[in-house]
């Protein structure tokens, strides 16, 4: 009788359920982290794209009027356009690069999104990037009035 009792104790599967539950809970926690932080990363990508577009449009508000009046050619005022775009990027807390060439502003924005759940497993932030380009357009179908009008 002692042999069967000892054999029954040695062949039991006690404790195996605990290991399965621990692995499943860890997997569910990781999945929840991917869902939450993945959603935040997508929102960060949209925010970076919005910021890049806003900064490019802000740069295009700075037309070189002296050049326009003398040559009838559209061109951005480089330093003012650069400063306006960079100010827009900095205002939202992102980093970026602005390139002004002629009548065009190209903006690249980098947005760093801190993770909420995945930081517990060592992933503290997710980085997203976006770019936008804006260029000057004439506001009328006939840019210059032959009768002496215009700027």
UniProtKB/TrEMBL annotation:
Keywords, in A-Z order: Membrane, Transmembrane, Transmembrane helix
Organism: Streptomyces monticola
Name of the protein described by the UniProt record: Pilus assembly protein TadG-related protein
Key word Transmembrane present: yes
InterPro entries: Tad_N
Keyword Transmembrane assigned: yes
Transmembrane intervals: 20-43
Lineage, top ranks: Bacteria, Bacillati, Actinomycetota, Actinomycetes, Kitasatosporales
Sequence ranges assigned to domain Putative Flp pilus-assembly TadG-like N-terminal in this UniProt record: 15-59
